[in-house]
Each structure stands twice: as C-alpha cells, then as structure tokens.
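From the pipeline queue, job 12 of 40. The input is one protein chain; the requested action is below.

Action: predict structure.
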Amino acid sequence: METKEKFLSFNLGVMDTGVISLQHITEVLQVSLPEICGVPEMPNSVLGIYNWRGEMLWLVDLEAMLGYPPISQGANLLSIMMGIVLENKGKYLGLLVRQLIDIEWLDTKQMKPPTSELFYPESSPFLEGYFINDSDQMIFNLDAITIIQAPMWRIHN
C-alpha cells in the first residue's frame, strides 16, 4: 500500500521546518505586506484581508499562530512573504510563511504522533505529527483542515 504523499515544506521560525499536504493547497503566491488590509480586533496572528483573484482571502501569520514570534514583526513594510492558500470544502485561508523550501515526498507511515513537550502549546491543535528527516531534524506536519476550521476565524468567514 502506497503511503507516500506530496508535501510542501517551508521555514518555521529560525530553525524549524513545517510541511502541509499538497492535497489541501490550492495555490502559492507572493504577498507584499502593504497589500494586506488590516482588520481591527482580530487575534494578532490574523494579518487581515488580501485581494486574491477578486475574492477576499483572510491571511494568517502561521508562525504567530503556532507560537513563534510573528513574522510580520521583524519584516519591513516592503517585505514580500510567501502565501499558501489552503482549501477545504470551498473555504479558503491564506497562510503567510517566510519562505518555501521544496515539495517533498514523505511516507505518512513514518510520521510520529505529536507530544506536547516537543512543541509550543499553541501549535499542538494544528499538528498531525512530525517526521524526522535524513539529517535528524524534525519536520512538523500541519493539519490543513484543522487550521482552516480553527475557531479564531470561523466567525469571520
């Protein structure tokens, strides 16, 4: 039985790597921070709304959401970030990350369950598990559906 899946890998924080299964990724795009319309009274991980193909797309600072320092903090206003557009059942959400690394085949049988002591408490609900790569680094596998359905922005969609 084939258990390998394609994942998009990207940087998380300074040292970490995250992956999301390609099956929930609709598009990857460059986002310049001034093009994001901030929305008041939202959690600090929610950067605001972005015009994506004529639709309003909520953009989330993935690092801030997972407990890392916000990427938008250290960024100058002209920064270009990478946006990953997730889709589930017609709902879209954009995740902002520093940079994309690659598309990787990972064997889901090799995935280890997340344990709370390894991760920021904020990230636990969004982790499916983690992989150990050839250089013995942990790669965090994020659950796209849980992220899209997170209560933080459900009320606003």
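Job complete. The mean pLDDT is 88.
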